[in-house]
Amino acid sequence: MLEIIVPAIVLSVLGFFLGILINFVSKKFHVEEDPALDDLVELLPRYNCGACGHPGCREMAHALIAKENKPADCKPIKKEQIPVIQEYLDNYFKNKKEQENK
Ligand code: SF4
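Above: the input record for the complex with iron/sulfur cluster. Below: its predicted structure, written as tokens.
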């Protein structure tokens, strides 16, 4: 019976302390992301197909914000969605420029 209880207690204690460690590390190294990334991912098809050359839509959103890609580089996107994303990006860059000038 002891050969079951001792490993169970050891694993429970180990799991508890590793949980605390993971919690601490995740808070210590937390990186605040631009909320526009979530908006852009919502506007993209979210197929994560990789046809744009990125591993997924979130990486494509990063590239759109970095001006490395254009919305039309997403292959499966509906044509009527391209101006919606472009308008979002135009407003995003305009707001960002205004914030930098303040
Ligand atoms: S091509 Fe479009 S749908 Fe596919 S991963 Fe890139 S952004 Fe997402």
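Notes for the reader.
Residues 91 and 97 are 10 Å apart (CA to CA).
The first helix runs from residue 2 to 28.
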